[in-house]
Amino acid sequence: MDPELEAFIPLFPPADLTDPVTARDNLAKLAAAAPAPDTADMEIEDRTVPADPDVPVRIYRPRQAQGAIVWLHGGGFVMGDLDTEHPWAIRVATGAGTVVISVGYRRAPENRFPAALDDVYAVLTWVAEHAAELGVDPARIAVGGHSAGAGLAAAVALRARDEQGPPIRFQLLNQPELDDRQETWSARNFTDTPWMTRDKLAMTWRHYLGSAPATPYAAPARATNLSGLPPAYIATAEFDPLRDEGIDYALRLLQAGVSVELHQWPGTFHGSQAIPSAEVSQRQITELAAALRRALTE
Question: Can you give the residue ranges of the Alpha/beta hydrolase fold-3 domain (predicted)?
Fold first, then answer.
C-alpha cells in the first residue's frame, strides 16, 4: 500500500451497504470534507433533461472547452449524487478543458436496473441533440465515470452501438464495476481491502439487480461482442476487488479491435483518489484528464 494513502484509511467509512441511506450519508460527509477545487474559470449550471422521469444534470463549462463528456458518479449504484461528485467533475473539466455533464441518475435499491442506464442514455441523447447550445462538437462526445459510474459508461456505449444511437468518441473508465459474477482472482480474494470488499461488491449487485438476471447492459463484462465500441482509457487499482475485471475488459476490447490505454496503479485501493493530497492520486487525476483531453482534441 502506498504509505501516503495508508495513513488515511481509518478516515474512510465502513465497507457496509446494508443500510443504503446511512451509506449515502457517510459518503456525503466524506465528500464534504474534501477541499473544493477552484471554479473561477468555468460556468456551472444545474439543468433538468426531459425524460421519464426527468434527469438532473450539472454542467461545467471551462473557458474554450473542447468537446464534452457525460460523467457518471460512483457509489455502487446505491450512493453518490451531483454534490458528492462536484469536486471530481470540476477536476475533470479543468484538467481536460472539456464540458462535463454530471448526471444525477436514479439509484438502487429504490430504482433497480435499468433505471440508471435509461437516465444516462437519455442524457447522452440530449447532449448530442443540444450540442450547439452546449457549445460542443457533436462528434466529440465521450462517456466516463468512476466505479459503478464507469460500468454505466461502458453499458451506455454498448447500448448506443446496438441501437445506432449517438456516436461516442471515447470511454473514460476509472476502476470500472463491470461483472456481477465476481469470479476473477481479485474479486474472490480481496475480502478486507479498504473501502471496497468482496462482500460490499456483492451487495451493490444485489441492490442494483434484485432478483433479475444480469444482462450485458447491466454487467458489461457479460457482453460477448465488444467490437465497434469507442476507444477506451481504463484505470485499475492494485488493492481492489474490481481490479481484474477491469484488466480483463481492457484485454477483450483489444482483442475485439478496440484501441485501449490501460493503467494499473500500484499501491492504490478503490476510491483512494478521494485523497487528493497523495502524490499518486495527483498523478492519477492528471492522467485521467490528459487522456480525455487527447481523445477529444486530436
Answer: 69-272
Range of the domain at 144: 3-297
The single residue of 2, 73, 147, 244 carrying the catalytic annotation is 147
Q: Which of 118, 119, 180, 240 is catalytic?
A: 240
Burial-class residue 163 by CB neighbours within 10 Å (0-12, 13-18, 19+): exposed
Which residues have a Cβ under 8 Å from the Cβ of 229 and sit 6 or more positions away? 157, 158, 161, 171, 253, 256, 258
| Structural domain count of the chain | 1
Amino acid at residue number 145: G
Give the CATH number of the domain where residue 287 resides.
3.40.50.1820
Asked if the model's pLDDT at residue 13 lies above 80, the reply is no
In this structure, what C-alpha cell is assigned to residue 247?
484488466
Residue 225 CA neighbour count, 13 Å, CB half: 6
Q: Is 207 a catalytic residue?
A: no
Number of alpha helices (DSSP H) and beta strands (DSSP E) in the chain: 10, 8
pLDDT reported for residue 36: 79
Angstrom distance (rounded) from CA 24 to CA 258: 36
Portion of the chain with pLDDT greater than 90, in percent: 89
Please determine, for residue 187, whether its predicted confidence score (pLDDT) is greater than 80: yes
Q: Is 73 a catalytic residue?
A: no
Average pLDDT in the 215-241 region?
Answer: 98
Q: How many angstroms separate the CA atoms of 233 and 235, rounded?
A: 7
Instruction: Give whole-number Cα distances, 55 to 52, 77, 116, in Å.
Output: 8, 16, 10
Structural contact between residues 196 and 269, judged by C-beta atoms closer than 8 angstroms: yes
Give the predicted TM-score (pTM) of the model.
0.97
Residue 226: pLDDT band (50, 70, 90) is very high
Buried b (16+ CB within 10 A) or exposed e, 9-29: eeebeebebeebeebbebbee
Annotated catalytic residue within 118, 270, 272, 281: 270
For the record, the C-alpha cell of 175 comes out as 476502476
* Catalytic residue list contains 147: yes
